[in-house]
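Final report, closing paragraph on structural work. Over the funding period we assembled a curated collection of sequence-structure pairs, and we close with a single example.
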Amino acid sequence: MKPKKNIYIFSNSTGETAERVIKATLAQFDAPETKVFRKSYLKTMDDVRVAVEDVAKRPGLIVFTLMNRAHVAELNAEVERLGLESFDVISPIIEKMEEYLGLPAKRRPGVIYKVDEEYIKRLESVNFTVKHDDGQSTQDLDQADMVLVGVSRTSKTPLSMYLAGKGYKVANIPLVEEVRPPDMLFKIPQERVVGLTIDVQQLINIRMSRMRNMRQPVRGRYTEYDTVESELVFSKRLYRQNPKWMVVDMTNKAIEEAAAEIMKKFQ
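Its predicted structure, as stored:
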């Protein structure tokens, strides 16, 4: 039977990057007895020395992703002193990239895990948009970057979610004939409102497809030509009464295309 092997991962941060590399590499070998241990958050020279001495008690291969050059030098010295083995996973890659890109590396531990402001903004935008879908929470529409309005099945929700992924807080409100939209819609800056419209027949086709997917009768007022046309006429009349609203025709238009049109204005 082959002796058990130990692999120790040394990192100034979590050590997850090195562990993934090592485990992906081990998958190429029939070595089920090999154990992988992490020595994370080695912040000082003493941390490095103590970690190496700990390995010496149960010797194994040290695989490291240390960003601090002084820590690397200390590790190499301790490894040589104690007769251990080590392998630098990341420095050769960084050095090659520095040479290729002609730029110095940041050499900061844990950079890949830092959550930047843009990510946080997108996350907040998605949360806001989900909570303000389909006419929900209209009392705080003033917090929205934009508000989409339109009759049923004019792509309000998918368009809202796509824009949220780009960092916009989006609310959407369904327009129903003979029902006045919420008062708050007319109190927010009107340049934030986007009205959606679409060709009558295309909207009928979309609604019929929706009813089929829901296993509901396809024929009815919801898909009736006169009814759908009347709804669209109602929405267009509302758009004309509010000239500051942007109007986007969704006929034969992909979500990405419509979003680009809207973002161009809002940028």
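The chain has two domains: 6-113, 117-266. The chain has a mean pLDDT of 92. We thank the funder for supporting this effort.
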